[in-house]
Write a structure and sequence with these properties.
mainly alpha, about 5% strand
């Protein structure tokens, strides 16, 4: 297929391409959750540009600075997808076109920072939106609870395996 005649606004979604993007997005989410389990979020560095992305995010989106950072703790999908939200994010994202690899790839993000990834707590955003939101959540301590949830999940899994091993050895 020639890219010169490709019009993304009129493109048909190809199921295999969509599946590949979905697999990449899920792998990215799993990797991030594993990082949250292993590294205290305030110490987590996601890119070489974390400082710049954080400062830009907090200045471009003053609503993230509101009381207790409620708009970062729980994302408002309607606002993200509104005309105003899309315009602000488009302008924000373009700054990183040449700075952040795969800045516009799709990523999964948790709507509520206090919960883990799940069907009702996950939406699709661009990679740079993911970085912007998660870097801010990490720096502000908003992912500390997720860190504890992830560690507890790993411990539950370890105990489950340990019990299964004991059961098998006594059988």
């Amino acid at each position: 297929m020639s890219t010169q005649s490709f019009d993304p606004n009129n493109a048909q979604n190809l199921i295999e391409i969509e599946k590949q993007f979905a697999v990449k997005a899920v792998e990215h989410a799993q990797t991030y959750w594993n990082l949250l389990e292993k590294v205290p979020p305030r110490a987590l560095k996601l890119t070489k540009l974390d400082d710049e992305i954080y400062e830009h995010t907090m200045s471009a989106f003053p609503e993230f600075n509101e009381e207790n950072h409620v708009h970062l703790v729980k994302l408002d999908e309607d606002w993200l997808k509104s005309d105003i939200g899309k315009k602000k994010w488009r302008e924000f994202c373009q700054v990183y076109e040449k700075k952040v690899k795969d800045y516009n790839f799709g990523s999964l993000i948790r709507m509520d920072a206090r919960q883990e990834y799940g069907e009702t707590n996950t939406i699709f955003v661009t990679r740079i939106q993911f970085y912007a939101i998660e870097i801010a959540r990490n720096r502000l301590g908003l992912n500390d609870g997720a860190h504890e949830i992830a560690k507890a999940d790993v411990e539950k899994e370890r105990l489950k395996k340990e019990r299964a091993a004991k059961k098998n050895s006594t059988s």
